[in-house]
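EI: anyone free to look at a 259-residue chain?
SC: sure, send it
EI:
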Amino acid sequence: MQIRTVTEDFIADLLANGKREDGRDFMSYRDIKVQTGIVPNAEGSAMVTFGDTKVIGAVKISPGEPMPDKPDEGNLMTGAELHPMASESFDTGPPSPDAIELGRVIDRGIRASNMINPKALVINDELVWSVFVDVYVLNYDGNLFDAGMFASAAALNTCRMPKYEDEKVIREGNLEKFKPGGLATSCTFAKLGKSIVLDASGNEEAFMDARITISNDEAVIRAMQKGLHGSFTNAELENLIDISFNKSKELRKMISDLR
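SC: here you go
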């Protein structure tokens, strides 16, 4: 996930002087915009932009068999697709390690926050609802983790629950809204040398040494994922956790206002 339109020295000099390319402070998000209901055939969908990063989150709910080891629970499957049209660094073919990691980090945040209550998805003794959450990257300019998580949460928080009657799936008419069991968002921090920034742009991500994504709700850290070879000190991590709780309140409010 790298694009390089500037040099590493340029980015390093900016950060050393307390500046970023777009004028933000180190712990600010870019402008965030969200539009829901953009995929007509999905139960819920949202297109989200974080600056120039643009992703779609879409939810499809269909009946299926439960997992053998969880007969009394519905299923959740989360995936991500990195299309070449979104960045010259993305290739066609099987899912890349970056796409797999993106899907898994978002999946972990959804599961750990109980955003989906699997036991409420049972239809009968043989069938359960399977919830498919897909993230499609339309344009890459950094921080797909937070944009993807935000789009997924917005899609889930606004989707409609189909009905199953007389062995048929009903997707039209007076459908109830899906009832999430919780609401979580993520905050992703990039470390470049001695500097740490929130919501890194594509140019910043190209030169980062370490990355950490913290998913939380109102009171609890639900999941964490560290990437790349660099590291964070204990003091840095504690500070980033505090920042993530404050910043995630703003993100969750944006999503809650959509409902």
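EI: The helical segments are 8-16, 97-112, 144-158, 202-205, 234-256.
SC: 👍
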